[in-house]
Amino acid sequence: MDEDTLIATVFAPLATDAGADGLGDDAASFAGGAGDIVVTCDALAAGVHFFPDDPPAAIAAKSLRVNLSDLAAKGAEPFAYLLALALPADCRGDWAREFAAGLAADQARYGVTLLGGDTLRASPGGGATITVTAFGRTGGGATVRRRAARPGHRIVVTGTVGDAALGLQARLAAPYAIDASHAEALDRAYLWPDPPVAAWRVVREFASAAMDVSDGLIGDLAKMCRAAGAGAELDLSAVPLSAAVRAAVAADPSAFDRAVTGGDDYQILATMPDGQVAGYVAAIEALGFTATPVGTIRSGEPRVTLLRDGHAAEVLDGRFQHF
Ligand SMILES: Nc1ncnc2c1ncn2[C@@H]1O[C@H](COP(=O)(O)OP(=O)(O)OP(=O)(O)O)[C@@H](O)[C@H]1O
Ligand SMILES: Cc1ncc(C[n+]2csc(CCOP(=O)(O)O)c2C)c(N)n1
Ligand SMILES: [Mg+2]
């Protein structure tokens, strides 16, 4: 059974509250005074999401940020989180202290606080697993949903796409034949994702629908299409690439496919009527991030059609899946 089927058939029947949206979205919400309280949970496992010898502060930052990107994509300002830690029996005290220092730095950076959690020894022989549950509030607005993408709405992505996936590939296989500064930028993108968390308010104000990109641009856009019951055109020539990714693609053209299908960037993919795009982009830029239109939602089958300079492009499949 693949991951999506497992969630849809085994877990979704347990999620009976409307705020969980049938487990079809980045996060759940429940009424909490003015606006919604939005809640999300993502776990990271050694050897699956990070390397056991990655800096503990980076593992901590990633654990928190992958959750904060979900909240920002729902138009919610993060305010608190719960932390469940399963640690190997031989875990050093230094490791935990460096891990906590990473959390402390991100608490200051994002204005969140730890509410509680749980700590246990990992199964014998097992590596660390870090589970964060994060809470946000929409401050009077409504939760932004994937399902609300509408035909004709433009698709806009923040930041650049593929940096983290290429950073991971460089570590798993051979490094790309690129400058050390570019290689370092890809490695940093993998270790320290930088989602536009502060953009939560801009998403809430301008976006009809939004989600964070964890499993890859094409695969996650396809998820949004399925939630919305609509198709999408994605213009591959418009996808924003960093100088480091462009250098990797120049050295190895297959890096392009990996960049648009690979995950781990935690950028925000949003849709909005054409007339909102300029305001959205300007507001994201005012926060120190970037945003780039990459396509359009279309009526029809929930499929992503790839274009290159306005013409049909080859079909690229693939996204990160655990099973
Ligand atoms: N074991 C589970 N129990 C309950 N709900 C789950 C479980 N696993 C996933 N979900 C729910 O299924 C939906 C999809 O989860 P998924 O992890 O694919 O999305 P995501 O968190 O947005 O993406 P990613 O984990 O790649 O960042 C979410 O609503 C999530 O809360
Ligand atoms: C060591 C190592 N191997 C592979 C990957 C790639 N990866 C793992 S999970 C995931 C998607 C998001 O996770 P989830 O769907 O669980 O939220 C991606 C892109 C990685 N980050 N580290
Ligand atoms: Mg998840």
TrEMBL record:
Mg(2+) 5 binds at residue 215. Mg(2+) 1 binds at residues 42, 118. Residues 24-137 form the PurM-like N-terminal domain. Mg(2+) 4 binds at residues 26, 40, 70. Keywords: ATP-binding, Kinase, Magnesium, Metal-binding, Nucleotide-binding, Thiamine biosynthesis, Transferase. The keyword Nucleotide-binding applies. Pathway: Cofactor biosynthesis; thiamine diphosphate biosynthesis; thiamine diphosphate from thiamine phosphate: step 1/1. ATP binds at residues 117-118, 146, 214. The keyword Cytoplasm does not apply. Mg(2+) 2 binds at residues 42, 70. Its EC number is 2.7.4.16. One of its GO terms (molecular function) is magnesium ion binding. Mg(2+) 3 binds at residues 26, 70, 212. It catalyses: thiamine phosphate + ATP = thiamine diphosphate + ADP. Residues 150-300 form the PurM-like C-terminal domain. Substrate binds at residues 49, 264, 320. Reaction mechanism of ThiL seems to utilize a direct, inline transfer of the gamma-phosphate of ATP to TMP rather than a phosphorylated enzyme intermediate. HAMAP family: TMP_kinase (MF_02128). Catalyzes the ATP-dependent phosphorylation of thiamine-monophosphate (TMP) to form thiamine-pyrophosphate (TPP), the active form of vitamin B1. Belongs to the thiamine-monophosphate kinase family. This is Thiamine-monophosphate kinase. It comes from Acuticoccus sediminis.
